[in-house]
Amino acid sequence: MLKNLEITKLPNGIRVITERIPYVDSFSLGFLFDVGAIDEDVDNNGISHFLEHMFFKGTAKRSAKRISDDIESSGGYLNAFTTKEHTCFYGRGLSKNLTKTFSVLADMLQNSLFRENDIRKEAGVVVDELYDIEDTPEELVFEKFESNIFDGNPLALPIIGTEDNIKGFTNKQLSDYVDKYYGFDNLVIAASGNVKHKRILELIERWMVKDLGKTAKKRTATVLHNVQDISLVKDVQQTHMVMGCPSFGFGDTENRTRVNILNQILGEGSSSRLFQRVRERNGIAYQINSFLNSFYEISTFGVYISTNHSSFEKAYRLIFEEFEKLKAKPVGEKELKRAKEYLKGSIIMSLESTTNRMIRMAQSMLYFDRVKSVEETCREIDAVSNTDIIDLANKLLAPENLSKVIISSKNFSMLSAA
Q1: What's the rounded Cα separation, in Å, for the pair 324 and 394?
Q2: pTM of the entire structure?
Q3: Rounded Cα–Cα distance for residues 171 and 255 (Å)
Q4: DSSP letter, residue 215
Q5: Which residues are within 8 A (CB) of 259 and not within 5 positions of it... i.e. 6 or more apart?
Q6: Residue 132 half-sphere exposure, CB side, CA atoms within 13 Å?
Q7: CB 3.0 to 4.6 Å from 185: which of 13, 120, 253, 388, for a disulfide?
């Protein structure tokens, strides 16, 4: 699946991964730094995400508008995202414009000025983004869930940070944080599409000239699990709930794959147990699904539902009934095979996007210091057995392990396992 893959670790510490796909006329190019909210503390929480914004605000050579114009005038696209563990800056474009895209990204990431006036203006933008989350219960409920379940752990910190922090960031704070965490030894440059590995190496030699120094040691996410229920009363039309527990991270490949299969069976897709029971057979929820949100050392596994207030308690009871079925009786071979094929199909189809391929390669390098093949991932999926699933269900779906966050205009804080 990754036949034209090349990897180089340069003397300056940058890891370079390319995958050549000669039959396309485009590329996806990403600069991924191994830094995110996990590297922050309460005093600077949100700084990684804020920097994601500020890197687009101008260098000595390019204004913010010129950064956009240089890419979009050539039919390309530039964007970025921050997670709790990584920050990615990436561009897409026609293969003939690779040099321009690389030079813009390299300039942004090495020469951004972080002007105080730009910081103040962008703080207003990011605070509005924070308010959007507060006004969107299906996002807010997940943020509160992780803050609750990981309390005392850096993973509890929200990616966007706090309003006070956002409004207080300074040029010195941003520059010091970049010096500490954005070193070449913390960077993976990945490209997928009609690109040549040798050309990427030439562009790095030409444009990546600033010595970013040695990256500070990353914080570790000591695994904590706080079993606590939270009920937030807000003026919303529906009741939203996330219920779940910590699970295995990317570092435990075997167990994480098993949880992924359990997730498929329980609530991923329209043929899953929760979708069929709660939505199709009872018609009491539009959104009902299970989830697996993964980090290196740990994941979160659970169920999300939104439904009208009057139907919530019934839906809650049905969810626990499905939990008990999974814990009591092994999954049939037909259902297990469906879950495996659905998961493998989702992975393989996602690889029709060069951007997904690029991000997958880079994240694999950051997590495992190598690129896992799709074939290897599919073999891990195929190895999961019925016994694995029932054992996991009994561990993860035990009522005493589950934490809940509920957002509703009604107080449901006294609900217990049905």
Answers
A1: 9
A2: 0.94
A3: 43
A4: P
A5: 247, 248, 292, 299, 301, 392, 396
A6: 7
A7: 13
pLDDT category of residue 226 using cuts at 50, 70 and 90:
low
pLDDT score for 228: 80
- CA–CA distance from 279 to each of 243, 274, 291, 415 (Å)? 18, 8, 17, 21
User: How far does Cα 337 stand from its chain's mean position?
Assistant: 27
**275's tokens:** 């979708």
Could you give the angle at the alpha carbon of 14 between the alpha carbons of 12 and 15, nearest 5°? Answer: 135
Count other Cβ atoms within 10 Å, centred on residue 374: 16
Full DSSP string of 6-29: EEEE-TTS-EEEEEE-TT-SEEEE
Question: What backbone torsions phi and psi does residue 171 show, to the nearest 5 degrees?
Answer: -55, -45
d(CA 59, CA 339) in angstroms, rounded, equals 49
Please tell me the distance from the alpha carbon of residue 381 to that of residue 261, in angstroms, as a whole number: 8
Q: Which residues contact 79 (CB under 8 A, 6 or more apart)?
A: 89, 90, 91
The secondary structure of residue 276, as a DSSP letter, is: I
- Between the CA atoms of 91, 81, 249 and 132, what dihedral angle is there, to the nearest 10 degrees? -150
Give residue 214's pLDDT band: very low, low, confident or very high (50, 70, 90).
low
Packed helices 171-181 and 47-54: angle between N→C axes, nearest 10 degrees: 100
CA dihedral sign of residues 9, 23, 31, 99: positive
278 neighbors 318 (Cβ within 8 angstroms)? yes
**Spatial separation of the C-alpha atoms in residues 9 and 249, rounded to whole Å:** 26
DSSP 37: G
How many residues are recorded in the chain?
418
Q: Rounded to whole angstroms, how far apart are CA atoms 121 and 6?
A: 42
Identify the bridge partners of residue 204 per DSSP, sorted by sequence position: none
Phi-psi region of 114 (alpha: psi -120 to 50; beta: other; left: phi over 0): left
- Cβ atoms of residues 87 and 48 within 8 Å: yes
The whole-angstrom separation of Cα 403 and Cα 156 is 14
Q: Spell out the SS3 assignment of 354-400.
A: HHHHHHHHHHHHHHHCCCCCHHHHHHHHHCCCHHHHHHHHHHHCCHH
Q: Which strands make up the sheet holding 15-20, listed edge to edge? A: 5-9, 15-20, 187-193, 26-33, 87-94, 77-82
What angle is formed at CA 48 by the lines to CA 44 and CA 53, rounded to 5 degrees?
Answer: 120
Report CA torsion sign: 360, 365, 366, 372. Answer: positive
Whether 142 and 289 have beta carbons less than 8 Å apart is answered as: no
Tell me: the pLDDT tens digits for 82-110?
Answer: 999 999 999 999 999 999 999 999 999 99
